[in-house]
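Final report, closing paragraph on structural work. Over the funding period we assembled a curated collection of sequence-structure pairs, and we close with a single example.
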Amino acid sequence: MNKKRVLVSLTLMLAVLGCTRTPYVDPLISPETQTSIKTIDPLILEPRPEPNEPASAEPNAPEPATQVITLEQCRAQALEGNLELKAQLIAPTLAAESLSQERAKFEMAFSSNINYSKRDRASFSGLEGNQDDYLSLSNSIQAPLVTGGTASFDTRDNRQHSDNPWNTYDPIYSPSASMSLSQPLLQGGGQQATKYSIRIAGLNHARTKAQTKLEVIRIVAAMDRTYWRLYAAQKVLDVRQQQLVLAEAQLAQARRQVDSGVSAQVEIIRAEAGVAQQAEAIIVAQNDLADRQRELKRVMNKAGMTMQSHTRLIPASEPVPVPYILDPNIMLTSAFEHRMELLELELQLLQDDQTIDFRKNQALPVATMNYTYNVSGLGETRDESYDMLRESRYADHTMGLSMRIPLGNVAAKSRVRSARYEKYQRLINRKNRKSLIEYEVLNALNQVETNWERIIASQHNTILNSRVYEAEKRQFEQGLRTSTDVLDAQTTLANAQLSELSALVEYQIALVDLAYSTGTLLGAAQVEWDPIVPTIQ
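Its predicted structure, as stored:
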């Protein structure tokens, strides 16, 4: 009874110990990092000082430095410093290393092995020895063949010492040399199968270069768009500042009109409201300009000009509103020729063809032919044994054929079908990609034409609204209009100017989009890129 109680107690104890699990703690992660992962800290914000308190900034802070920069300079700096592009430019180097690794699969290998044994055995017969020692040194060179087989050359040097009284020689030297060949006849045989991985690595290398070229085009096109948006933000600020000057002039004119008794006091209030409105618009324009400045600095990633730097970038390149002859057929032909997405799909289709052939080969039965030629020697001394070896008195030939035929071969046949389905899917993707490219090119062409028409219309609109503003201002001076009428005309004029500016910038961006949709870059200068080979410390 006591034994049963002890057994039950031990069982319960083990069950309790088994249910108690210690939480796993990764030794590579520090306790501080573990705590940081599980804890969400609050954001502490300090309130600003009251308006009557002294400002923290220096009263005579220097003006921020300015740098005039052209579109070409922005492109060059982006190609040199953009972090996204730098990361992508390493990809071709990695792909080239993968190709180099696959090409090395046919390198020969040398191996060497030495064994020594000493035995002391009991014996029931005087014809046998009790003690012996054995020393063996073997060397081998193996060479993979492009046909899928393996050739090897082996040498062995054996020395045996025994106390057996019936041995003719003691010690006994028995060297040997052999050459063997193993060649698959069906599955895995032939260069089509053995070089499959090399061809796939080569196509991957080409695909990676195509992807990198696409990334270069994307970065440069993004730089062009960012530059023109910065140009637009700068011009919007100029328009807003110009409108503020006009609003202040209107306020001064309203005060003179009120002082002379021509207008009522309310005209000053209306004019002051117009000045305040333009001041708010300037604040919004300055904030948008600062955002565009940071965006351009981020894309360029120039040393000494971080996103937190106060350097003001002044765009020097001006948009050139020139109409172009745009033939949709020519644009589509260029797109189908230069778009890297199509080239990448073509390379993937080549990979699919290689994969289908390889999987067909892997679905064949396994049939391997083996042949070995061996020469051996024997002697009381090492020189005597090697003399016999060189004379090739005792040579062996061994040939063999082995086969393994899967019954059903369901998995291999399924892999062949999967490869064919993947290629069929890729062909559909290629048709879809061509359709999308045609859609993008036609949309880009339409956008270019639309923005050009916008430029013509907005320029005419600006001229007319400028005349309206001048007329309203003259009538105000004669007491026939209020400050509200003048300010409304001024706002309408500003909107017309901003619309003209928007059409001009959007026309430039539309040209960039058109070039991008055709797989090219806007401009006369070619862009060349080279892979980055990182310096390994």
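The chain has 13 helices and nine strands. Residues 140 and 154 are 4 Å apart (CA to CA). We thank the funder for supporting this effort.
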